[in-house]
Automatic annotation (TrEMBL), chains A, B:
Family label: Belongs to the sugar phosphate cyclases superfamily. Dehydroquinate synthase family.
The protein's name in its UniProt record: 3-dehydroquinate synthase
Transmembrane intervals: 97-118
Protein task: Catalyzes the conversion of 3-deoxy-D-arabino-heptulosonate 7-phosphate (DAHP) to dehydroquinate (DHQ).
BP GO terms, sorted: amino acid biosynthetic process; aromatic amino acid family biosynthetic process; chorismate biosynthetic process
Cofactor dependency: NAD(+); Co(2+); Zn(2+)
Length: 361, 361
C-alpha cells in the first residue's frame, strides 16, 4: 500500500492507494463515529455498493446507503437535499460520517453535504473514477452547480481520509480513463517535467491499466496535488496553476453543452491550446508544444478544438470563475514542468484560436 | 465608539458599536473589494436600505441591494437561491463582499450565502435587532432551515467585521427588545455574575433604550460571546454553554409552532426552567432561582411555560441538535455566573416540568 499525506490549515489526512482497498474501508472511519452513510449513485452502487457496505459493517456501526441519480445534471441542490432528507430521517447526529463512493460528481455533492449538514460532519472520499482518484477527491473542493454556473455554490472542506482502490478502474469505460489521464499529465506539465517524461514512456501501460504503472501515476498525481494544495488551500494564488488548460476546456464544455465532451477530454484539448498560447507569449519551444499535443493524442483525448465562433470563445472564457474584475488571465508554461499565471494580449489569443480550432464546414 | 475583537481559527475581526455606525459602513469594506451586495429584507430596507446604500457608495464600488421576504419561514434554500441568482446575474466575483443588514434571519442566510458562493466570499454583519447585535452576528454560525429541522444546513464562517448601530433599535418593536435582553442576561448567568447584577440594576434603563446602558450591555455581551467562541469556534465543548435555557426554549418554540413565542421569549422562560433544574440537581440556591425568574420577568419575557404534555416535552427536547447518541443533556448552573454541561435523572426533569409548566384548564 502507498500512503500520501495531505496537510492543509483545514485538515491533515492520508490518501491510501492499493488494489482491494474497498475491503478495508473500515480502517478509515474515526473511532468515535456514531453511524455511517455511503453516498453513491445507481451505476456505482450496482458494482460496488454491497462490497462497501459489508466492509463498513465491520465497524459495528449502523450503515445506510444513499443512492443518487447518475450524472452531472444531478449535481444540484435537489440531489443535495436527498442526502439531507436521508440523514435527518435516520437521525444522523454530528458525529456521524459520510463516505463518498463514486466519481467526481458524487464526491463533490457528498463533500458539500458533509461540509454543511449540521454545519459540518466528517467524510471519507472513496473515488471510483480515475479523474476522482487523481484530482477531485484530493484538496477539499466541494460544490454543486447553479443554473447560471458550474460549481458556483460550494465549500472548501477536507475529508478525513481518501481511499483509492485501483481495482475499480477495471469497470470504468475507456473514454473515462483517457479523460482521467489528461489530469495526470497536467501535473507533469505544470510542476514535474520528469513525471511528464515518465508518462510519455508509459502511456501504453497506463491505457492498458497495468497495475504498477497505474498505481505510480495515481500516487505521483496525488503527491503533486497535495503539494500545491498544502501551500494554498483556498486558491488565493498558487493553486490556480491546477487550472492549466481549464479556461479553454470550460469554454469547450459550455460551448458544446456540458457532457458532449468529458471534462478531461476538454482539458486535454485545452492544454494543447494553452501550450500554443505559451509558445506565442512566453516562448515555449515548438518542440515542447509538439510533445504536449502528441501525449494528449496518445492518451486518447482530442487535440483539435471545436468551432464555437471567435466571439463566443472569448465570451465563454470570460464566464470562468477565475476571472477577476473582468480581466482574462491564463495559466501558461514558460517550459514543461513550470507554470505561471498572467494576462495575455488579445491578438495572441485570437491567433491561437485561429490555429487550434477546427473550422466547421 | 467601542470596539471588541473576536479571534478564532476561522478569522479575526472587529465589532464596532456606536450610535450612527450605519453612516460609516464603508470603513468595514476590504480595500480590494470589487463590488458590494446589501442583503436585507423588506421591513429593514424600508427603514435603513437607502442609508446603508449611500454609506457604502462612498467606497466608489458598485452597490446592489438584494431584498428578501421577511420572516423565519423564509430562512430556507429558496431564499438563499434569490441571493445566488442576484450575485450571478450581476457577475459578482470572488472578491465581492456581502453586507447582512437585518436581524438574525438575514444574518444567518446572508452568512451562509457568503460561506458558499464560489466556495466563500467575504461578508460584513450589520445587525439591526438586539438579538442579532448581542448574539447571532458574532461567532460565525450561519444556517438555513430544513423542513425536518431548524438550522440543519449551514457553516461556521466568520464575517470580516460586525457593525452595530445602536440607533436602529429605536424602530424595533418592544417585544423584540425583551427577547434580545433574554440573551443579554444569559451571558451574565453562564459566565459573569457581576454583569448579571448590573443587568438587575439597569433593567429599566435597558427597556427604555437608554443609550449608555444599552451600549454597555451590547459591548459586554459581545465580549463574553467572543471569549467563549474564541476558545471553541466549532462547538466541540465550551461553546455549548451559550445554549443555556435553549433546550427548554426550543421545545416551547417547536411545541407551540415556531413564531408563536419569539426565540428570546422562549429562551427567557427556558432559563427559568433550567435554573429550577439546576436547583434540583446541583443545589443552585432558591434565592438564585428567584433572581433569575425576577429578571426574566422584569425584561418582559414569560416565566411560565406552556403545557405541551409531559411526554411531548421530553420528545421535543430530544430533537435538539445537542443530543448525542440519544442522551438528553443540559447546561446547568452550580451558581450564577458559572455553567456546566451534564445529563440529569429523568425524575428531576419531570419534577421541574411539573413545577414550571402552567397546566392548561
Ligand atoms: N473537487 C474538485 O477538486 C474537482 C476537480 C475536478 C473535477 N471535479 C468535478 O468532478 C466531476 C467529474 O467527475 P468524474 O469525471 O469522475 O465524473 P462522474 O462522477 O460523472 O463519473 C463518470 C461516470 O462513471 C461512472 N462510474 C464511476 N465510477 C465507476 C466505476 N468504477 N465503474 C464504472 N462506472 C463508474 C459514473 O457513474 C459516471 O456515470 C465534475 O462535476 C467536476 O466538476 C471536481
Ligand atoms: N447565528 C447564530 O449564532 C444565531 C444565534 C441566535 C439566533 N439565531 C437566529 O436568528 C434568528 C432570529 O433573529 P431575530 O430575533 O433578529 O429575528 P428576525 O431576523 O426575524 O428579526 C425580527 C423582526 O424584526 C424586524 N427588524 C429587524 N431589524 C429591525 C429594526 N431595526 N427595526 C424594525 N424592525 C426590524 C425583522 O424584519 C423581523 O420582522 C433565528 O433564525 C435564529 O435561528 C442565530
Ligand atoms: Zn479538471
Ligand atoms: Zn438564542
Amino acid at each position: 500500500m502507498s500512503t500520501v499525506r495531505v496537510s492543509t490549515p483545514g485538515g491533515s489526512y492520508p490518501i491510501h492507494i492499493e488494489a482491494g482497498r474497498l475491503e478495508r474501508l473500515a480502517d478509515s472511519i474515526p473511532h468515535d463515529a456514531t453511524a455511517i452513510a455511503i453516498v453513491t449513485n445507481r451505476t456505482v452502487a450496482a458494482h460496488y455498493g454491497e462490497r462497501a457496505r459489508r466492509a463498513l459493517a465491520q465497524t459495528g456501526l449502523r450503515v445506510i446507503l444513499i443512492e443518487l441519480p447518475d450524472g452531472e445534471a444531478y449535481k444540484d441542490w435537489q440531489t443535495l437535499n436527498l442526502i439531507f432528507d436521508a440523514l435527518l430521517q435516520n437521525r444522523f447526529d454530528r458525529r456521524s460520517v459520510l463516505l463518498a463512493l463514486g466519481g467526481g460528481v458524487v464526491g463533490d455533492v457528498c463533500g458539500f453535504a458533509a461540509a454543511t449538514y449540521m454545519r459540518g460532519i466528517r467524510f471519507v472520499q472513496a473515488p471510483t473514477t480515475l479523474l476522482a482518484q487523481v484530482d477531485s477527491s484530493v484538496g477539499g473542493k466541494t460544490a454543486v452547480n447553479h443554473p447560471l454556473g458550474k460549481n458556483m455554490v460550494g465549500a472548501f472542506y477536507q475529508p478525513v481520509a481518501v481511499d483509492i482502490d485501483t481495482d475499480v478502474l477495471n469497470t470504468l469505460p475507456p473514454r473515462e480513463i483517457s479523460a482521467g489521464l489528461a489530469e495526470v499529465i497536467k501535473y507533469g506539465l505544470i510542476i514535474d517535467a520528469e513525471f511528464f517524461a515518465w508518462c510519455e514512456q508509459n502511456v501504453a501501460a497506463l491505457r492498458a491499466l497495468e497495475p504498477a504503472a497505474m498505481t505510480y501515476a495515481i500516487r505521483r498525481s496525488c503527491e503533486l496535488k497535495a503539494l500545491v494544495v498544502s501551500q494554498d488551500e483556498r486558491e488565493t494564488g498558487l493553486r490556480a496553476i491546477l487550472n492549466f488548460g481549464h479556461t479553454f476546456g470550460h469554454a469547450i464544455e459550455a460551448g458544446l453543452g456540458f457532457g458532449t465532451w468529458l471534462h478531461g477530454e476538454a482539458v486535454g484539448c485545452g492544454m494543447v491550446q494553452a501550450a500554443e498560447l505559451s509558445a506565442a507569449t512566453l516562448g515555449l519551444s515548438s518542440d515542447s508544444v509538439d510533445r504536449v499535443r502528441n501525449l494528449v493524442e496518445a492518451i486518447g483525448c482530442p487535440t483539435q478544438a471545436p468551432d464555437l465562433g471567435a466571439a463566443r470563445w472569448i465570451d465563454l472564457m470570460q464566464v470562468d470563475k477565475k476571472t477577476e474584475a473582468g480581466q482574462l488571465r491564463f495559466i501558461l508554461l514558460p517550459r514543461i514542468g513550470q507554470a505561471v499565471f498572467q494576462s495575455v494580449p488579445a491578438a495572441a489569443l485570437q491567433a491561437v484560436l485561429g490555429k487550434t480550432v477546427v473550422p466547421s464546414l
